Amino acid sequence: MTQGLVYLAMWRRTLSTNHRCLGCRGGGLLKRVWSAHSRLVSGAPALPADRITALQAADLWRTRFEEEGVTEPEESSRYIIAHVLGAKTMESVEPERLTEHLSRGKTEQVWQLCTRRLSRMPVQYVIEEWDFRDLTLKLRPPVFIPRPETEELVELVLTDLRRKSGPGVGSESGQTCVEVGCGSGAISLSLLKSLPQLRVFALDRSQDAVDLTGENASRLGLRDRLQIYQADVMKNAESVLSLCGSASALVSNPPYLFSEDMASLEPEIYRYEDPAALDGGEDGLNVIKQILTLAPLVLSDQG
Ligand code: GLN
């Protein structure tokens, strides 16, 4: 009988990592996900007539975000300004640059990007990239933004695949993995990066996600071991099976929110992220049940 192992990610909090990360350090991801609190956005502060330093700009925008109830005000302004300075974090910018005046062009860029954040666009979409484990991924709406908790899911899968393949570099040769709902490619690309012999079939119902996974794979030099298909497991189960039957592992961070909770999501989520990547139906289990039905058919006997 097939011993299927299916990995499903849940949004658990994780501890901080050394890279760009929102929601990694306590502070209540659930609050961020579920709060229905949203205020009308008034205008952005006027572009300063006098020159301004990066630290002054960060302070000004943090205050503005706080006034407007924008979540993670401090992190938002610091990540955006670091990005404009060509860095990932303010901590990694040489201290002298933070107290120098910004050029007019950079000031305008800060204003443009921070104004997007003021309209509740997630920072990850504002700067069009984010870190996931050891990868930097391109991100754009409406493709689901990888959550820090999913990094833990990748660790679990890696541990399991390594255990199954036994010791020795390259011993995972021949292993294949199917990902249902690849989004930006975070899970598939992390697995490919960590296991140099692995091959992955990544599926998503959304063409935007398929395109973005492909783009990220090419940028990271991982395209040759990845096959990406636009396929909806709820509708085209047959074609999914014919494309990628007999896999070593099946991994997914599927939509699992209750439909009735979709209306109380934070504006960052409901305005910008694809609802199909979040809404799991009445009991949150629509896609999960389908994945569990397909699992014994997709997985190899040792899968
Ligand atoms: N697998 C992707 C991620 O975890 C997309 C998940 C989704 O669309 N629900 O980021």
Automatic annotation (TrEMBL):
<protein>
    <recommendedName>
        <fullName>peptide chain release factor N(5)-glutamine methyltransferase</fullName>
        <ecNumber>2.1.1.297</ecNumber>
    </recommendedName>
</protein>
<dbReference type="InterPro" id="IPR029063">
    <property type="entry name" value="SAM-dependent_MTases_sf"/>
</dbReference>
<dbReference type="InterPro" id="IPR002052">
    <property type="entry name" value="DNA_methylase_N6_adenine_CS"/>
</dbReference>
<keyword id="KW-0808">Transferase</keyword>
<dbReference type="InterPro" id="IPR004556">
    <property type="entry name" value="HemK-like"/>
</dbReference>
<dbReference type="Pfam" id="PF17827">
    <property type="entry name" value="PrmC_N"/>
</dbReference>
<dbReference type="Pfam" id="PF05175">
    <property type="entry name" value="MTS"/>
</dbReference>
<dbReference type="InterPro" id="IPR040758">
    <property type="entry name" value="PrmC_N"/>
</dbReference>
<feature type="domain" description="Release factor glutamine methyltransferase N-terminal">
    <location>
        <begin position="60"/>
        <end position="127"/>
    </location>
</feature>
<dbReference type="GO" id="GO:0003676">
    <property type="term" value="F:nucleic acid binding"/>
</dbReference>
<dbReference type="InterPro" id="IPR007848">
    <property type="entry name" value="Small_mtfrase_dom"/>
</dbReference>
<dbReference type="GO" id="GO:0032259">
    <property type="term" value="P:methylation"/>
</dbReference>
<dbReference type="GO" id="GO:0102559">
    <property type="term" value="F:peptide chain release factor N(5)-glutamine methyltransferase activity"/>
</dbReference>
<dbReference type="InterPro" id="IPR050320">
    <property type="entry name" value="N5-glutamine_MTase"/>
</dbReference>
<keyword id="KW-0489">Methyltransferase</keyword>
<dbReference type="GO" id="GO:0005739">
    <property type="term" value="C:mitochondrion"/>
</dbReference>
<keyword id="KW-0949">S-adenosyl-L-methionine</keyword>
<feature type="domain" description="Methyltransferase small">
    <location>
        <begin position="174"/>
        <end position="256"/>
    </location>
</feature>
